[in-house]
Specification:
Blueprint: E1 16-18, E2 21-26, E3 32-33, H1 35-48, E4 52-55, E5 61-66, H2 68-80, H3 88-93, E6 96-98, H4 104-119, E7 132-136, E8 149-154, E9 157-162, E10 165-170, H5 175-183, E11 206-207, E12 212-214, H6 215-228, E13 233-236, E14 240-242, E15 266-268, H7 282-292, E16 298-301, E17 313-320, E18 323-330, E19 338-340
Parallel strand pairs: 6-7, 7-8, 15-16, 16-17
Antiparallel strand pairs: 1-2, 2-5, 3-13, 4-5, 4-12, 8-9, 9-10, 11-14, 13-14, 17-18, 18-19
Bound molecules: iron/sulfur cluster.
Length: about 350
Amino acid sequence: MTFAVKGWCPGALRPMESGDGLIVRVRPWNSALTPAQARAIADGARRHGNGLIDLTRRANLQLRGVSPATLAPLQEALDRAGLLDRDPEAEALRNVMVGPFAGTAARTLATRLTEAIVANTGLKGLPPKFAWLVDDGAFPTLLDQRSDVALCLLADGVAVRAGRSWLGIVDRSQAVETALGLAIGRRPALAPLTVPPDCRRPPPGMAVPFGRLTWDQLCGVADLAETAGSSEVRLAPWRSLYIDGPMADAAALGLIVDPDDPLLRIDACPGAPACRSSTVDTRRDARRLADKGFAGTVHLSGCAKGCARSTAADLVLVGMDGRYGVVRNGTPHDPVLYTMTPDEL
Ligand code: SF4
């Protein structure tokens, strides 16, 4: 049975093959999970995968190491937790990211938008990676993220963005319709937006090193949320988790709560042996680099695809034939200056 589908992001209904088995991606509604849902995912990873879960750059969770035999029971468990879509098309379209600090009104707007996207058959022809985001003008943190259509809730309406361009402001009641219209190429008539919302720098919350969680870490986060009386665990694309309540105890789970931790400045894709495209163990080497100390930002990429980071880093190390190609101030696609062995890092 072959699951790889070129040009598609993996989902829970449409998993993708990887070096360590099938990847099953769960897209939490409004980029948030109840503690019970977080526990269901952790349990699914433990029982039906290899226990490892990735927090992605679209604030989704990917269960790794699932086999064709364990896929169906995993999907049933996700369905019981309210985490499975009715079909793969709806799942793929529901690519809506919501700011982790969005308040109730912005979350309600995001829910309305997501429901409308899933219900709108006219959107089925959208490109697979068509991305939406919703944030709250009171503390917007997602606005530097890529999106095709973005909505930001303000006091006097909803600011609307297409690609990188802010187009104007619309009444709250018209925001969903406006966003859907933009997706199919309809230019809306909007009131002018004099001051576009500014993206804020978020606190680290509970940062997940390289976006890789173990099932028991996720259970621990669910415990913290319940102890704090937080109804949600919110997910952020900079690979952090947030709850309403104290988060310092997450350090005991192996998560990063210190904003000065050097690992926060390193991006590293799974690399070898998890990904077949890599000949280097990127995350092992990233931890060694963090222990030695370094300045600026670093991106270790198992190959030139650069899955872990789309923007430039001060130092980029790209895997090639068991060595690292070195790029300064760039991305893995840029020309390599020289190569070195992992031991020479
Ligand atoms: S960057 Fe290359 S090696 Fe790393 S996860 Fe992506 S495809 Fe695999």
